[in-house]
Amino acid sequence: MSPSNFLEKTLRFIQKLLPKKLYSFGQPIYHYLLAVTGTLIYRNPSRKLVVIAVTGTKGKSSVVELVAEILRASGKKVASASTIRFSITDKSERNLYKMTVPGRFFLQKFLHRAVAAGCTHAVIELTSEAALQYRHKGVDLDALIFTNLQPEHLERHGGFEAYAAAKLSLAKHLEGSPKRPRIIVANTDDAYGQKFLDFPVEIKAAYSLRDAEPYTADDKSIRFTWHGELFGVPLPGVFNLYNCLAALALGECLGLQRSAMKRALEHVPPIAGRAERIVAGQPFDVVVDYAHTPDSLKALYETFKNRRIIGVLGSMGGGRDMWKHPEMGRLADEYCDIAVLTEEDPYDDDPEKLIANTARGFIKHTPVVVPQRRDAIHKALTMAREGDAVLITGKGTDPYIMGPRGTKQVWSDASVAREELAKLGYNK
Fold it and tell me: Residue 99, class by beta-carbon neighbours within 10 Å (0-12 exposed, 13-18 middle, 19+ buried)?
């Protein structure tokens, strides 16, 4: 039996013996010991790599992808780990764990594999949940990028300030890294950006939309000026402009050549599940996006605001951020010409009640309710006309729809959209 399996079985055994409150109290100790053990087993692979972490509420996965692209264009051998995928040099696999940073030594094992493959750099997405469970412990960071902070996971953390503190603990972790120089890159258009820059590290870099002026952004691309040079990037929306600026600021701190970074960004491939266009020869746009917070949903809708929008959205169950459901409905009511409400990840909650909670946000329009997600996507596609934008949000690259009693249905919004387009006679 592997060490991780042994510890997992031990935890489950202890869980059965202890009262729930006592078990919950001891969980952080278990997670901490697990992280330390993983570091020892895999012989601290982070010390043999330049490790760049990305944290924040929105844009983390996209920034991981963009940073990895500019590093590759600069001749580095790169590994990356995010909600979207795990990549080591030219080998990539989908993240099927339904979590950004899996437990049970996963990150240490991943970095160990990266070292064995000859990688020089690793770019990893770190979440507040990973911080709570010490999954970053034993990973010596060289750099941390902070994207932004918006309300999310409030029930899990016990409020916004506790959520912010979990994010800031990652900057504290960088502060304790033995590596030099340590780098913090932070979005100073965000109220918490300066708090990250206040940590005592050797190199600090702020980025802001002011750095990109003059700029334009639409639903297909962004064009901006950075250090006097014009960039044209085939990614939509101001939110992707922020992501590009984060990657460029980090690259500048690492001493990467601007020409290589420009080449990488101007030829960047679409990012899976992040404003990802599904093309099958249809006369309207179909876009799959992870937007699952009010702020990210608004940013996506704003990007397509000059189009007739048909939105497909749901609400997550399991007691996760129930406060945001009516707000998501309010945004759909404001921006969508037609809104189709459906399931997302109901867990043990009644899907109809979750949908009704989102519907509370509607005042101007009456949403179309289609409980089954595949049927909802099909319905939206049948209502689309030439020039419309069908925006399918909430899941992005999520590999499952989570149901009651731990059940899960294999899922891909992008694949389902392609299949339903094919049924309607569209073939690329």
Answer: middle
Instruction: Tell me the C-alpha distance between 230 and 330, whole Å.
Output: 37
Whether this model's pTM surpasses 0.85? yes
Q: What is the mean pLDDT of the chain?
A: 92
Amino acid letter, 238: V
The answer to whether the Cα torsion of 286, 287, 291, 296 is positive or negative is negative
Please tell me whether the peptide bond between 214 and the residue prior to it is cis, using omega within 30 degrees of 0: yes
List the one residue out of 118, 159, 141, 268 whose CA is nearest residue 196.
141
At 330, give phi and psi (nearest 5°). Answer: -60, -40
Q: Which amino acid is at 404?
A: P
Pairing status of strand 215-217 against strand 203-207: unpaired
- Per DSSP, 270 falls in state P
Contact 261, 251 (CB under 8 A): yes
Amino acid residing at 82: S
Report CA-CA distances (Å) from 272 to 276, 278, 374, 415: 6, 10, 19, 11
Confidence of residue 153 (pLDDT cuts 50, 70, 90): low
Query: For residues 378 and 425, what is the distance between their CA atoms, to the nearest angstrom?
Result: 12
Cα separation, 344 vs 392, whole angstroms: 11
One-character DSSP codes across 22-74: HHHHHHHHHHHHHHHHHHHHTT-GGGGSEEEEEESSSSHHHHHHHHHHHHHHT
Please return the burial class of 375, using the count of CB atoms within 10 Å of its CB with bins 0-12, 13-18 and 19+.
middle
All residues at 6 or more sequence positions from 424 whose CB lies less than 8 Å from its CB, including other chains? 282, 381, 382
Coil vs helix vs strand at 423 = helix
Cβ atoms of residues 402 and 98 within 8 Å:
yes
Quick: pLDDT tens for 4-29: 556 556 656 665 666 666 655 556 67
Amino acid at 299: A
Whole-number Å distance between alpha carbons of 66 and 280: 26
